[in-house]
Amino acid sequence: MSSDDKFTGMIDRHIEATVRNRLTASVPAVVLLGPRQVGKTTLARKIAADWPGGAIYLDMERPADRLGLDDADAYLRAQRGKLVVIDEIQRLPGLFEILRGIIDDRRAAGERFGHFLLLGSAALELMRQSAESLAGRVAYMEISPVDALDAAPAGIDTQTLWVRGGFPESLLAASDPLSLDWRRDFIRSYLERDVPMFAPRMPTETLGRLWLMLAHQQGALLNQARLAASLGVGANTLARYVDLLVDLQLVRRLQPWSANVGKRLAKTPKVYVRDSGIVHALLELCTWNDVLGHPVAGPSYEGFAIESLIVAAGVQRRAYFSRTHDGAEVDLVFERGGTPELAIEIKRSTAPRVERGFSVACDDLGVQDRYVVYPGDETIPLRRGTTAISLTAMATKLRETAS
User: Fold this and answer.
1) pLDDT in tens, 238-250
2) What are phi and psi of 336, to 5 degrees?
3) Per residue in 278-300, pLDDT tens?
């Protein structure tokens, strides 16, 4: 049993049911995207273990499995009736053309669903590789680190999840120092192994410095010119560095809401290191007290909450922030069908209150559903039609109304 299986197997993932449903009744293939060590392999093996007709698992980082695909078309056609799981498929991009032929032949024979589950670590690169070959034949799904709704049923409290982040081995480590050690190794591995694989000409030391800068500036507007100057690179080069971190699903660019509401709005995205545990590891913060004593505590909690809420909100909603030049701001705006649906302010305070700027921004957006997410447990009515609510309760509400 791999370490990924050992740790992630202790936590049920909400995305499992969705992946199963897509494979059994919707598409011939699912591409499951997520950073390394997030739990893709464990989830895939769990699905494969009880798949009707059986399943096989192939890892493109294992030479023996790659060798077995020397005649990939013949081998994969011989697995008819089984679910074929292919891990780290971006290492063998030539497979996509072969998969298209197999899927089309099976469709012609009336076998429409559940042929392939493909796992990958680089979202944009993998979608680029597969877009032409598998267009109309594949669903793309993202598995994020463990979020608030995954953690709660496993008995993991929100405080631990925030401090350690959602990578299972970090989250379930025997102590805070061991958790921090795992995250340090994770960061080092990405810089020494993954960056050279996906961007061979990109200097890993420079990218590591950028990653650290973004952790220090968690949730700030992306100032490419200042970051480029600090790193001694051009603006275009800096943009490629940020693109890579986004592609590897390590960084999120949260775009500003840009519909015309009659006021000048910020047009620059905010940038978050997506996993709070990685933020804390980059800044060498080991314990809850270390985090609380650091200026990043507020922005870190904001980013942590945003990740859980975006995952819970589902693919039918799109997430933005809103900020006017006169200071009215909403941390998170969920839009559906082109219309802002609800607005969320995130406060790391056990006595939350409504800021005037939040209410003004909500009025400008025309949003009636207004919430302040805070670390407490109670749901409390506040002024101006706003409700204070816990992160888990807010995520549950979003999940229940996601479809």
Assistant:
1) 999 999 899 889 9
2) -140, 130
3) 999 999 999 999 999 999 999 99
**Residue 134's pLDDT band (boundaries 50, 70, 90)?**
confident
Give the chain as a 3 state SS string: CCHHHHHHCCCCCCHHHHHHHHHHHCCCEEEEECCCCCCHHHHHHHHHHCCCCCEEEEECCCHHHHHHCCCHHHHHHCCCCCEEEEECHHHCCCHHHHHHHHHHHHHHCCCCCCCEEEEECCHHHHHHHHHHHHCCCEEEEECCCCCHHHHHHHCCCHHHHHHHCCCHHHHCCCCHHHHHHHHHHHHHHHHHHHHHHHCCCCCHHHHHHHHHHHHHCCCEECCHHHHHHHHCCCHHHHHHHHHHHHHCCCEEEECECCCCCCCCECCCCEEEECCHHHHHHHCCCCCHHHHHCCCCHHHHHHHHHHHHHHHHHCCCCEEEEEEECCCCEEEEEEEECCEEEEEEEECCCCCCCCCHHHHHHHHHHCCCEEEEEECCCCCEECCCCEEEEEHHHHHHHHHHCCC
